[in-house]
């Protein structure tokens, strides 16, 4: 009887098993190799002696190895400064964006005032305007405010996030009305309602918006390129091309600089992989 039950269980598992599972695994392995191979190549090139040349690609992966390139880049370039600038700008931009978008979304979702629907439509229209179309007026505004070539000029124009307001507004709309009404009856102010009740319930949405705001600010090239004049204020997306342009015929030092810039990002992804994947699945953004 037990043998028959085991046989039936195996047949049920066979029926439910994905017939394309092996093919999907194979495709996943191939795609992973395609993504990982350039990173591995970059790391091997970065530990080659400066001026090293090859006749075959396999020689990049063979000795000799050295870490002197890392010491040279750290001592003779501003890459650590650019790394700090990128992190500082991305971190502050993310914090300010989350504060402003969550407050705006809460007001539109839970508070009653005139032209509320019009303001929400205004945010929706903001998604239809490409960022490049606003660069010139944005630059003129920042210039007139004397914020060019400053951290404030890098951060403040980037904290407006129509998408963040829309996502959080939709999330706040789904908070049970009974909870909101009970809190108001008990004398809870709008700020306490926002801070102690609504905001804790929105942690998944907050995390998703924070992740994508940080990544977007970290990878932003156009605005820092236009608004920053001093080399000490460059972020990585601006500083690395400037550095690499001085070694247009070489591989080793540019790859070392790229490796130094990439290692913190790789470590951050490994540490926050689950949160990033959840953020992608939550917002439905594909990239």
UniProtKB/TrEMBL annotation:
InterPro entries given in the database record: MetI-like (IPR000515), MetI-like_sf (IPR035906)
Membrane-crossing residues? Answer: 25-47, 82-106, 118-139, 151-172, 193-215, 251-272
State the GO CC annotations: plasma membrane
**A GO biological process this protein is involved in?**
transmembrane transport
Q: Where is the signal peptide?
A: none
Q: In this protein, which residues make up the domain named ABC transmembrane type-1?
A: 83-272
Give the UniProt subcellular location, in the record's own words: Cell membrane
Please give the chief subcellular localization of this protein: membrane
- Enumerate the UniProt keywords alphabetically: Cell membrane, Membrane, Transmembrane, Transmembrane helix, Transport
Topology in the lipid bilayer is annotated as: Multi-pass membrane protein
Return the similarity comment. Belongs to the binding-protein-dependent transport system permease family.
* Cited PANTHER family: ABC TRANSPORTER PERMEASE PROTEIN MG189-RELATED (PTHR43744:SF12), ABC TRANSPORTER PERMEASE PROTEIN MG189-RELATED-RELATED (PTHR43744)
The protein's name is: Carbohydrate ABC transporter permease
Q: Which organism is it from?
A: Oceanobacillus jordanicus
